Amino acid sequence: MKVLITGVDGYLGWPLAQYLTNRGHTVGGADNGYRRAWVQEVGSCSAIPVCEMKDRLAAFEKRFCRPMPYWHADLRDFGNILDILHSFRPDAVVHLAECPSAPFSMIDREHALFVQINNLTTTLNLLYAIAKCDRGIHLIKLGTMGEYGTPNIDIPEGFIDIEFHGRQDRLSFPRQAGSWYHWSKVYGSYSIAFAVKLWDLRATDVMQGIVVGSRLSENRSDERFCTRLDFDEAFGTVVNRFCCQAIIGEPLTVYGSGGQTRSFLSLADSVQCLGIALESPAKIGEYRVFNQFREVYSIIDMARKVQSVAAQKGLKVDIKTVSNPRLEQEQHHYNPIHENLRKLGFRPVRSINDEISFILDDLANHANRIRSAPKGFYPTVSWKGDTTATDVK
Amino acid sequence: MKVLITGVDGYLGWPLAQYLTNRGHTVGGADNGYRRAWVQEVGSCSAIPVCEMKDRLAAFEKRFCRPMPYWHADLRDFGNILDILHSFRPDAVVHLAECPSAPFSMIDREHALFVQINNLTTTLNLLYAIAKCDRGIHLIKLGTMGEYGTPNIDIPEGFIDIEFHGRQDRLSFPRQAGSWYHWSKVYGSYSIAFAVKLWDLRATDVMQGIVVGSRLSENRSDERFCTRLDFDEAFGTVVNRFCCQAIIGEPLTVYGSGGQTRSFLSLADSVQCLGIALESPAKIGEYRVFNQFREVYSIIDMARKVQSVAAQKGLKVDIKTVSNPRLEQEQHHYNPIHENLRKLGFRPVRSINDEISFILDDLANHANRIRSAPKGFYPTVSWKGDTTATDVK
Fold first, then answer.
1. Which residues in A lie closer than 8 A to residue B332 (C-beta atoms)?
2. Who contacts B365 (Cβ-Cβ below 8 Å, separation ≥6)?
3. Are the beta carbons of B301 and B242 closer than 8 angstroms?
């Protein structure tokens, strides 16, 4: 199968390209290098060094004995995405070309607008380009479990049967996103569902949990096959960040009581799930939603898990709670359903525990990089911030 | 009360400014003149002549014995909205500064993006500006009943109690918009609900039906107090368009079978409802939703209604069905609830029938304007259009 990965230089894109190529697919990639720029903007860097894209591509070609077609391109420019689809002619597109950070979107108004417009534009462009080029292309779009928020009822996979005044309908499950970024993902989901109706496209919308991991099991000997591992407050997801704190002996910083419960999966499982979605594609005219995760933990339990794996490696780390910069419930019901991928054959291959252990091994040589990053671990972006009632110019 | 109307030069903004001033409020307005430009872009004009904004303002000042503070300003520029809030210091903002056309958003990709980004940006800027200047400002935002689509269950006012797996929560009622424009209004609703949570703002989100009318009952002698009345396929809403067809003896063009059912209200009732929302404001921290309409009709029934009112005036008109350019159900359940405004005192003052009669009177002198508009009544924007599988360059 020919698969285009948009955002191939990102956290998921790079390992996914390797995984799919290993499974015999032909992978092409596009990226504009924004993830690198954003992490730099917030004053941080990847804990694991990330080589230039050209070196990644050279490593890829050497290992897989074929080059990966690659476009350095901004998908907010419609001409770019049209050109790519026209020349590569993919069977499927995995769309990862979005800004993935809630705190980044909450920095201020400019960042809120940037994230929403960026994500809305790349997704809409991609939909129009698919409709124009080849409506048979299967679009796999990365959403997030965060789109659902934390309702007081179980979370179904995308849709729910609602009975009201004696009548019934199956409707989209109401979303309750918790940041401008998360809302941008909700808008992307609606755009895709609408475009599928409009033009008889085919799409899989993946509500993914928080991914944990630094690389696939393959190629552990060559760091160029690692993915980036961010630990700053904006792009460092919680478990990856805890691992970076653990490796330099800093306390793991839990926001608030840590009772916030989230869904998680290992990087190895994430790419497996995306592979399943690709290999069992949505039908023409079908918009389907997968809740993609393996395990559910509270943040405080996850901190304890990292603490315990670190202890096995002789790393003694404390857990410290800091004031919660976010607007979120710290005690709540959380029971998302995740049956669709299991029915298609998903069987987890790597536990979160194992993934944490691998990350800590990968980080062992990079403690100094983490220590010397200009921006530390502590949150500075407050959900309530950026606006005070007094400072109108 | 000091009320800022953003989009004061538009279809609703201009009569609303008069209505609120009549009720003793101090009204300020902002507009960038886009509605005029859009209608010109699609090759049409208002059936009732619209004088320049400066002449509108002069007429306003003469009649109400005070000037209306007015800013010719684009609200996509944050500085503009900050300056306006800072200098006018309103108690409430009625936000009408959005592109209001479904067909306009469906012309092509550029228009889809323009409408979504325009509407998202003005709304987000306004929210940030209110949070920054004065969180007590009551935001009244014009949404549309079209956000809900046509689910197979009754439509509540914004929220629904959902029971699932033995637990219950009250969640946002799932939206099923039918155009990129309608989705932009859904995104606006979510942005406002989120901002209210974030910053303890106060907001009323108005899901309005299709408005019918050309002016308030006051000032029928001076056409400068009329509002614009568009009849092109993009900005001409269905009943106003039917009236323009009737006045020149053209058949009323019904899309498809005409079984599509929608909610309607007169212009006089629309401004009354907005006045009620203003005068009984949302509480601090409250995001409330009103379904704002009076009557429910199918499009074919509405065509017959216009035909019958026209007949009473000696105008004989036919009804003609044309191929439906939209993607919508033509037979469906439709029963939206509308109790919130009634509970606050809304009592309809003008029926749709009366409003149609007034419009036909107002149009009597303008048949030639309608006849000579370069763009006719027939739909040319197809929901399925703009993309064909063959024409990749």
1. none
2. none
3. no
Backbone angles phi, psi at B275, to 5 degrees: -65, -40
B33 within 8 A of B53, measured Cβ to Cβ: yes
Which of B126, B132, B329 to probe the A interface (max A CBs under 10 A)?
B132
What residues are paired with B162 via a beta bridge? Answer: B169
Assess if residue A272 is contained within a domain: yes
**pLDDT exceeds cutoff 90 at B275:** yes
- What backbone phi and psi angles, to 5 degrees, belong to B40? -65, -40
The yes-or-no verdict on residue A375 having pLDDT over 80 is no
Domain membership flag for residue A370? no
Nearest CA in chain B to A392: B133
Dihedral sign from CA coordinates of B7, B10, B14, B15: negative
Distance between CA atoms of B274 and B252, rounded to whole angstroms? 30
Cβ(B369)–Cβ(B45) below 8 Å: yes
Exposure b/e, A132-153, CB count within 10 A at least 16 = b: bbbbebbbbbbbbbbbbbbbeb
Q: Which domain holds residue B208?
A: 2-371
Tokens, residue B47: 């059936």
Residues B167, A191: C-beta atoms closer than 8 Å: no
E-assigned strand segments in chain A: 2-6, 26-31, 70-72, 92-95, 138-144, 159-164, 167-172, 202-208, 210-212, 252-255, 261-266, 287-292, 295-298, 319-322
Is the separation of the CB atoms in B125 and B118 below 8 Å?
Answer: no
At what angle are helices A352-363 and A299-312 packed, to 10 degrees? 60
**Which of B86, B165, B194 to mutate: most A Cβ within 10 Å?**
B194
Beta carbons of A25 and A1 less than 8 angstroms apart: yes
Q: Mind listing the pLDDT tens digit for each residue in A34-73?
A: 999 999 999 999 999 999 999 999 999 999 999 999 999 9
Is the pLDDT score of A234 beyond 80? yes
Mean pLDDT of B80-89: 98
Judged by DSSP in three states, B57 sits in: helix
By the 8 A CB rule, do B16 and B213 touch?
no
Q: Rounded distance, CA A112 to CA A216, Å?
A: 33
For residue A166, what is the nearest residue in chain B, using CA coordinates?
B153
Which member of A124, A153, A387 has the closest CB to residue B169?
A153
Residue A250 within any structural domain of the chain = no
Instruction: Examine the residue annotation and report whether A181 is marked as an active-site residue of this protein.
Output: yes
C-beta neighbour count of B197 within 10 angstroms: 15
CA B328/CA B325 separation, integer angstroms: 9
CATH of the domain at B36: 3.40.50.720
pTM of the predicted model, to two decimals? 0.96
- Minimal CA–CA distance to B131: which of B197, B75, B187? B197
Query: Strands B138-144, B92-95: parallel, antiparallel or unpaired by DSSP?
Result: parallel
Percentage of chain A with pLDDT > 70? Answer: 97
The CA-to-CA distance between both ends of chain A, in Å, stands at 57
**Residue A83 CB neighbours (<10 A):** 16
DSSP string over A318-373: -EEEE---S---SS----B---HHHHTT----S-HHHHHHHHHHHHGGGHHHHHT-
Q: Residue B241 is encoded by which pair of tokens?
A: 């368009």
List, in order, residues 6 or more apart from B196 with CB less than 8 Å away.
Answer: B202, B203, B285, B286, B287
User: Of the candidates B256, B274, B266, B291, which has an alpha carbon nearest to the alpha carbon of residue B147?
Assistant: B291
The ipTM, to two decimals, is 0.96
Look at chain A and report how many structural domains it folds into. Answer: 1
B392 falls within a domain: no
State both tokens at B386: 């703009």
Q: How confident is the model at residue A219 (pLDDT cuts 50, 70, 90)?
A: low
pLDDT of B13: 98
